[in-house]
Write a structure and sequence with these properties.
Order of helices and strands: HHHHHEHEHEHEHHEHHEEEEHEH
Number of helices: 14
Helix content: 40-55%
Structural class: alpha/beta
Strand order of the largest sheet: 1-10-9-5-2-3-4
Number of strands: 10
Largest sheet: 7 strands, parallel
């Protein structure tokens, strides 16, 4: 028979035991054991209360970006590529946790950018989803999160609509998903859809964005753009033949950061690369030496104002 434990009753100045525990730990600076004695619960319960306080946005733990942005490597990247901000996450012994670590760093950067009334454009990919999942809840109001690329085939766990929905949910924001596929069967059908009011309104929202969050992808045979079903390998080869080295928001770019177009681009629903630059805050998150060429091309193209990257790849860029 399971015994159901009740949360202790907090004093009248606190709305619940979670706020009480958070105050004792973060403000009164008690140890977890001292908080447990004060509340009359186990230390494990205190750990759970503190985690719940962070999840609910009662407590927001912020890492001063200046502490890591002022490193020599960050300064060199900002100077070389004209960036407003750059976060280089430190290296670790393993690479398996690179995506979640990049996502957490990007979430902190995005949180510090946000203002009430913001429209945030969101692309897709593993690092973008990791950032969306990691961002802290905010008290800012009137936020809108808008998907910048149409829906892709299949059910990948980092689809554009999922990335957008997760971020909107975390920020308690209005969510605008694209009601159209990323790639259509013909150019004429694409042109017709672009004239539909619901699609036109989506693009209007995207172009009013103050912030855009996107990842940077390579175009190897096992890359995300192929494994997701967004693009078949034979079509990818046609882009490579024209000099493509990487991809952002579903568009291909060459080593100089210029968009590489094929007939497929005229069947796609989503931003063109030239439409990214007018957005004031352009946060790119990417890492891994295999993406070096793609990241360098994206920076050369002037699509990024703020970069989150890992130490090894940042060093290779310099």
């Amino acid at each position: 028979m399971k015994v159901k434990f009740r949360k202790p009753e907090p004093p009248p100045e606190f709305q619940d035991v979670i706020v009480w525990a958070a105050w004792l730990y973060y403000v009164d600076q008690m140890t977890q054991s001292e908080v447990a004695r004060e509340l009359g619960v186990s230390r494990a319960s205190v750990v759970n209360y503190l985690q719940e306080a962070r999840d609910k946005g009662i407590v927001s733990i912020q890492f001063d970006p200046g502490s890591i942005e002022n490193t020599l490597l960050s300064q060199q990247l900002r100077t070389r590529f004209g960036l407003e901000g750059c976060t280089v996450i430190p290296r670790t012994q393993t690479t398996e946790d690179l995506v979640p670590r990049l996502g957490k760093a990007a979430a902190r950067t995005l949180s510090q950018m946000l203002q009430s009334g913001d429209v945030i454009g969101v692309a897709w990919g593993k690092t973008v989803l990791a950032a969306a999942q990691s961002i802290s809840r905010t008290s800012l109001g009137n936020l809108t999160v808008v998907q910048v690329v149409g829906s892709i085939p299949g059910t990948v766990d980092f689809s554009p609509e999922l990335c957008t929905s997760v971020l909107a949910n975390q920020l308690n924001a209005r969510c605008m998903n694209f009601l159209a596929p990323a790639v259509l069967s013909s150019r004429s059908l694409c042109n017709e859809l672009l004239e539909e009011e619901v699609i036109a309104n989506q693009f209007q929202a995207i172009r009013s964005s103050r912030i855009i969050l996107f990842g940077i992808g390579d175009i190897a045979a096992e890359s995300t753009v192929v494994r997701s079903g967004f693009m078949e390998s034979d079509l990818l080869r046609s882009y490579e033949q024209q000099g493509a080295v990487g991809t952002i928001i579903g568009r291909m770019l060459n080593a100089e950061g210029e968009q590489v177009c094929t007939e497929m681009d005229h069947r796609m629903i989503g931003l063109m690369l030239e439409e990214i630059r007018p957005i004031p805050c352009r946060l790119a998150v990417a890492g891994g030496i295999h993406k070096l060429e793609a990241i360098r091309a994206t920076l050369r193209g002037g699509y990024v104002t703020h970069l989150v990257i890992d130490f090894e790849t940042a060093s290779a860029l310099i």
